[in-house]
Amino acid sequence: MEKEGKREIKRWREREIASEREKEREREGERERERERERERGRERERERERERERERERERERERESKKVRESKSEGERERERERERERERERESEREREREKEGESERERGRERERKREGRERERERERERERERERGKEIERERERERERERERERERERERESDREREGG
Description:
Elements: H1 2-72, H2 76-172
């Protein structure tokens, strides 16, 4: 009967261990999937940048075609309007790049602010430490001053004692 109970406990333990290992494999799998998703996001960003470069090249070709057309066009007024449109497109592209930089810069600034907050925290901590140090130093200084005062008091006491001594000698003599 007791053997049966022990076997039951052993089987239960084995099931527990197996279940724990299963959970660990699950967690590892989840972590692996997370890493994969991260890699995928990285690849996606890379593809996005590639598409952006492609669009930039396309715009470049477009500008090239446009300017060729312009060169071939005879009318000065037409060329002027074309240049105006080109400048307009250039401003548009610039503001597009600006927005892009803005997005990039925002996350960079956020990280910067985070670093700044941490640095300030450390700075405050050091300042408090220095303040405590100065406090201790002042305490010691006050203590030393009191000690010197007591020493002077004892010195005065000894001086008075000598005075009395010398008075007694004069009176006695």
